[in-house]
Write a structure and sequence with these properties.
The complex is a heterodimer. Chain A has five helices and 13 strands. Chain A is an alpha/beta fold. In chain A, the strands form two sheets. Chain A has a nine-stranded mixed sheet with strand order 2-1-3-4-13-12-11-8-9. In chain A, strands 6-5-7-10 form a four-stranded mixed sheet, covered by helices on one side. The mean pLDDT of chain A is about 95. Classes of the chains: A alpha/beta, B alpha/beta.
Chain lengths: ~210, ~260
């Protein structure tokens, strides 16, 4: 199967590619929006600042193309970290660049992205390190074989707050409970970094590839 | 609940890993790649990899070696040494780094920290601060401990936080390599002054030192080099000791249902 890793100018792309290779797939780095269509599923990685990412997505013509792929062609998409946050309607990180209080995201899963502080976290931010997730849906195919309490590697200051709580498939807790895994239709997002979560991360990637096949 | 990280620090110079005492008297430890592979197999929480001579070279960073080192690392990898421009950060992230560590360049051009944070997010920026005690206070040193910046440590760490650093890697130069324990007062001062995570570094000699850095110093993570290179202590042993002391640590993943 063809797995496209979206390269819009940010992200720890090397790590994501290597983790996928470890699962015996040959991921392709997709650096032009027009090339997305040739893939069976897409991964939107992220290490970055929300509004800067949106600016880059817009500049590269990714926003409409991604919406077409996901909504028009039903292409499975997995957003990682900021890549998950970008699925939202709005983000509040890095604002004040002439956009007012918020930056529009891809709008693929209704909701907004807030600072952990705004969500009530009084601990050190960013939230860096291994933290356990708790599944909030009875059967989430992305989390098959991954029991509650499994530790994943997080590194973020903002979190995705979906409008519809049934889009949240797992939560994590860091001074406040926040969405660790979201899903709406063929769009998935994980706040943590599966590519840096050793075997638990490989399992999650392999689950994503499985749901993408059928 | 967030887990306390145990982080092996790997210092490399040209072709191999080295480790010194007080940022001096370097000993060769061995090749880099096998060390990374072993740590990856043992699923350490994170790795810090620093090129200790990159800052004094005019040459471009050794991206090829970083790419090679990152090939077999499926845990978070922080890469440091000689980073002075934002385009280098992007190349390192492509090569396999997940976070980058800035030290000398932050003193020379503090805006660099803000620029990297604006582009790649604060969580990507680990500000490394090397500290020596001077006249009853703590002073920051740049150029791998070689140059007194004149900056007082707590004020500098606050400035780094304000400029967008996501973590502070606080290293005591005097404790480095001695295995006599972290400078707990230093760690406590920094951890008490900033709201971002602080990684204790420099001086760990046994598991109790690590427990103390967390419970007394308020560190969010503990880094060590000599202790892992030269003694029987392991990151897994450190986590067991932290766990026994009531400090939460990451559990090994066990797949269910198959």
């Amino acid at each position: 199967m063809k797995v496209g890793v979206i390269d819009f100018g940010v992200g720890n792309l090397g790590s994501v590619m290597r983790a996928l290779e470890e699962l015996c797939v040959s991921p392709v780095l997709v650096d032009r929006a027009v090339d997305m269509h040739a893939n069976d599923c897409l991964i939107l990685p992220g290490v970055g600042n929300f509004s800067d990412c949106v600016r880059l997505l817009e500049a590269g013509g990714w926003v409409d193309a991604l919406r077409d792929e996901v909504l028009g062609y039903n292409r499975p998409l997995l957003g990682i970290c900021v890549g998950m946050q970008l699925l939202a309607d709005f983000g509040t990180e890095g604002v004040g660049m002439g956009r007012g209080d918020e930056t529009p995201g891809l709008g693929l899963i209704p909701g907004r992205v807030e600072n952990l502080r705004t969500l009530g976290c009084a601990q050190r931010v960013p939230h860096v390190g291994w933290n356990e997730i708790t599944c909030t849906q009875k059967s989430s195919r992305l989390l098959e074989g991954i029991p509650d309490g499994t530790d994943f590697y997080f590194v973020h200051s903002y979190a995705f707050v979906p409008e519809d709580s049934s889009d949240v498939h797992a939560t994590a807790d860091y001074g406040a409970s926040f969405a660790a895994v979201v899903q709406r239709g063929n769009v998935w997002g994980v706040q943590f970094h599966p590519e840096k979560s050793s075997r638990a991360g490989f399992k999650l990637f392999s689950n994503f590839l499985s749901v993408s096949i059928c | 609940m967030l887990k306390t990280r145990v982080i092996p620090t790997l210092l490399w110079k040209k072709f191999g890993l080295v480790k010194g005492v007080g940022f001096d008297s370097w000993r060769r430890v061995g090749p880099v790649l096998p060390a990374i592979k072993v740590y990856n197999q043992r699923e350490v929480d994170e790795l810090i990899l620093v090129d200790i001579i990159a800052h004094c070279s005019e040459d471009e960073l050794d991206f090829e070696s970083i790419e090679e080192f990152g090939q077999d690392c499926f845990v978070p990898l922080t890469v440091g040494g000689g980073i002075s421009r934002i385009d280098q950060v992007q190349r390192l992230l492509r090569a396999g780094a997940d976070k980058i560590s800035i030290n000398t360049a932050a003193y020379e051009r503090p805006d660099l920290v803000a620029e990297i944070a604006a582009r790649h997010g604060s969580q990507c920026v680990v500000a490394s601060v090397d500290v020596r005690s001077v006249d009853g206070g703590w002073r920051c040193y740049s150029h791998a401990g070689g140059s007194d910046t004149g900056r007082e440590v707590v004020a500098w760490c606050r400035e780094l936080e304000d400029r967008g650093a996501g973590e502070i890697l606080a290293t005591s130069i005097e404790r480095d390599g001695t295995m006599e324990g972290y400078d707990l007062a230093l760690i406590e001062s920094i951890a008490g002054a900033v709201d971002i995570p602080v990684i204790a570094s420099g001086g760990a000699g046994n598991y109790e030192d690590m427990v103390a850095a967390v419970s007394e110093g308020g560190a969010s993570a503990v880094a060590a080099a000599s202790m892992f290179h030269f003694t029987e202590h392991t990151p897994a042993g450190a986590k067991d000791a932290l766990d026994a002391a009531g400090v939460p640590v990451r559990k090994t993943y066990i797949q269910t249902g198959q």
